[in-house]
Fold Protein p34.
Amino acid sequence: MSSTLRLAIASIFVGTLVLAIKTLAWWLTGSVALLSDALESTVNVATAIAALIAIRIAARPADSSHPYGHHKAEFFSAVLEGVMIIIAALLILREAYHGFLDPVALDMPVEGLLINGAATAINALWAWVLVTRGRANSSPALVADGRHLWTDVVTSAGVALGVLLAMITGWWVLDPIMAAVVAVNILWSGSKVVRESLSGLMDEAVSDETLNTVREIIATEAGGAVEAHDLRTRHAGQATFIDFHLVVPGDTTVFDAHEICDRVEAALKKAVEGARITIHVEPEHKQKHSGIVVLD
């Protein structure tokens, strides 16, 4: 079992534990803000399950129906997570509205805050694990799940502040007001996750940093060739697709051209994790005098 899959499974257990703790905090206090916080945690569990399914599908090898693999399944999961974040925010706004119309004093607010604080600490730690390991494993689903948990941490912090201020001032209307403020922040975060995931589904090119690395490797490792042009890249989950045309002198043998391609591919795969490379070899009269000049 891969580390990515293990993390996805662990997220389900962590999400369920946090949901139980937050539900207890709401049950003790009757706080609208704490109820909203618990509602978002139900989304955490659902998105963790969606991420697990997507990662399992993305790990499947290429087949006759999907010759480029199943890597984009993780982007679908990330889009779903973004949509569910937005839905959670709308649910929170609904509860905040009703709480604003009929504010009530909270029961056992100190105990509720302490219990909710424990759940927040667990979420913060696990969000950091998911984002860092998701980036290391090139897993959009894990990164999206981690970012979602970060919004949950922000939500919990805002909720705690609202409940604390309501306790100090006696203005219990601050409880639903703070819930509404945090919901707006969650809406922004959810829309960002959706935008980033859709860019992956639309075959967005790799980052400028990665693209510069690819260009430098081609320029230095393709000795014996003349130039490379029509370089294209795209990323899909844990895979990065790179294709370009490589111009070689007209008298280059097939064997020598293949050796150049093998050398470039090996260097690219070493520098770019999950690289899938396609090189179209062309004779010298096809050069465009543009693109990447191969260094001698």
Remarks:
- The mean pLDDT is 81.
